[in-house]
């Protein structure tokens, strides 16, 4: 059975949503991707939506919505996106913090940089899961 990975931050509107989409795109054969936060947002960050559409041809408005931690199934791996405040807690077998800055309100270049960093980290995480470097 594929491990379930949750990408979490407070608002679940930008980085964690991008990570969920990129996890589905690049690592669907290795793990199941979810995202959530401790506060719901009515909309996903529209800059993130636009950048993801431009870079990867994914419309996260169509496929995803803001979710709370309680909405998730039992999670094996928690990835914190990098919170300047206290990151939410979610029980799991393994946890890491990617320490990514929130691009919200910044330029497209910042969003592209964030998306590319997430893509790289997703591929690395998939490799580590595949090579059993992460004990579950």
Automatic annotation (TrEMBL):
Q: Which Pfam families match?
A: LMWPc
**What EC number(s) does its UniProt record assign?**
1.20.4.1
Origin: domain of life: Bacteria
What keywords were assigned to this record? Arsenical resistance, Oxidoreductase
Annotated signal sequence is none
Q: Does the keyword Repressor apply?
A: no
Q: What is this protein called?
A: ArsC
Q: Which gene encodes it?
A: arsC
């Amino acid at each position: 059975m594929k491990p379930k990975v949750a990408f979490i931050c407070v608002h679940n509107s930008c980085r964690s949503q991008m990570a969920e989409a990129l996890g589905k795109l690049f690592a669907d054969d290795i793990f199941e991707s979810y995202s959530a936060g401790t506060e719901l947002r009515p909309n996903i960050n529209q800059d993130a939506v636009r950048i993801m559409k431009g870079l990867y041809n994914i419309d996260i408005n169509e496929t995803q919505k803001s979710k709370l931690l309680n909405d998730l199934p039992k999670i094996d791996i928690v990835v914190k996106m990098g919170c300047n405040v206290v990151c939410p807690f979610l029980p799991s077998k393994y946890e890491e913090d990617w320490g990514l800055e929130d691009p919200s309100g910044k330029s497209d270049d910042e969003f592209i940089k964030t998306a590319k960093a997430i893509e790289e980290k997703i591929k690395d995480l998939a490799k580590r899961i595949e090579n059993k470097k992460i004990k579950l």
